[in-house]
Amino acid sequence: MASQITIFFLILSLSTILVIGEDHGFARSLDRKLLGFKKEKLSHFRFYWHDIVSGKSPSSVPVVKPPLNTTTAFGFVSMIDNPLTMGPKVGSKLVGKAQGFYASASQEEISLLMVMNFAFIEGKYNGSTITVLGRNPVFNTIREMPVIGGSGLFRFSRGYAQAKTHTLDIKTGDAIVEYNVYVLHY
User: Which terminus of the chain is less hemmed in, N or C, by CB atoms within 10 Å?
Assistant: First the structure.
């Protein structure tokens, strides 16, 4: 009887390790199926990012001004809550917001550090985000930035975003940028 109890607890312990993974103290390995992850898929998103710096209700506001002795605005930081739309017109269907900041990070050229979440409000992606963090040399025709993660349907995501300036209003500073985002996610 004692050996049967011992065997029972041994099997129970072994099955617990197989279910929750190998324990390393503060971390453990998990089976991704336990978190509900299925087959990984590749999705493509195309939308327009509206950086509105003019008017009564700008979506991009400076929080750190650059020093006067810079030709590249090095040190400038702007917080954003920019609309993401289906088409290039600001009045086209809103699919989300780009929330975060960009900063001028080069002393030699106009190049921005982009730190933002694409927070979606449309369809099955409502409430999910894609996170981008990367270098944006704004005068290049197409700029590529890494997707470093996300939330909701984009947990454990990775990929890249391509930005292409659609229009830039020199008088107001407002810009519309086409984004094509390629994301691997579960």
Answer: N
